[in-house]
Every structure is written in structure tokens, then in C-alpha cells.
Amino acid sequence: MRGAVDEGGRRRDPRLRAALGSLLFLVVEPGVVAGLVPWGLTGWKVARPPLIVAAVGYVILVAGVAVLLHAFVRFVVEGVGTPAPVAPTRHLVIGGLYRYVRNPMYIAVALTIIGQAMVLGRPVLLLYALVFGVAAGSFVHFYEQPTLTSQFGAEYEAYRDAVPAWLPRRRPWRPDRPTNPSDDATR
Questions:
Q1: Are 113 and 128 spatial neighbours (Cβ–Cβ below 8 Å)?
Q2: pTM metric for this prediction
Q3: Were 36 and a residue from 32, 100, 109, 158 both cysteine, which residue would form a disulfide, CB within 3.0 to 4.6 Å?
């Protein structure tokens, strides 16, 4: 993996390809879902929400973008792959925020949409966030979980048993320690 050699005998890091693929996927997938579609629904026209609503919306929006970028970096550095099903990771991504919740990327996209709804004062985006949440949850249940089980087997099963899908744990999961239900009341 590290220091792979190409046909010319030069060393290349497979993370470079993962980074480029992830960047492309970031622009296409979340860029459309959390950027282009909200723009299409609102034209980015502000409906003058109360100042406190807009302020909280900005915090949620920035947090969503930060979590999204963190998740993409984890896929490159730890997983040596992309979030795109056509170029999956070589390794199961279980570090960083993934130690608290299995789906921080989907949560981040939903937070980004909710933050936009609050900043713009556009309730239609809250409805859109709900539709996105149902679609993401269905994708996780019917495609992602079976695929990860097939690809990573017992490693993913242990991770799935220890880390909740949507509501974060209070304490980070450590794969080197057996899970004790009393360790985390939010599970």
C-alpha cells in the first residue's frame, strides 16, 4: 500500500489517488445535495429569519461543513479510498469522529442543509433535510451495511455493534477494548 511502485519504477502514494477521487466526489455528491439542490429550492434568497435563528444556523452550517471535511480526510488518510461506492476504501474507517458515530458524513450533510434553512429562513429546506435523511438512512440500511459486512466481515460487525449509526456515543470507541454497555449510556 504505502510507497506503491508504478510501472516506471517510481514510488507513489495511493493516498494521492484517494485524495483526488474524494475531492471529485465531494464536489459532485455533497456539492449537489447540500449546495445545488438547496440553491434550486431557494435561489439563496433570504427570508429574514430572526437574528438568533440565523446565528444558530451559521453555527450549525459551519459545524456541518467541518464534520464533512473531517470525514472526507479520514477516508483518504485512514481508509485509502473514497466515500464513492465505485472507489471504496481499502481499510475500514473507524478513527476520528467515526469512533463516536458510524455515519458522520450523512449527519454533516443534513446539518449543512438545516443550517442553510435557518440562515436563509426557508422551511422548505427543513423538509428537504428530512427527505435527505430518509434517503440516506435507507441507503445505509439496504446498501452500505451489507456491503461493508461483505467487505470487512467481523471487523465491521464489531464496529457496528459498538458504535451507533446516528446518535453519537459520549465516549470514543476503542477497538482494542471490549465494549461494555455501561461505558456509554447513549448507545
A1: yes
A2: 0.87
A3: 32
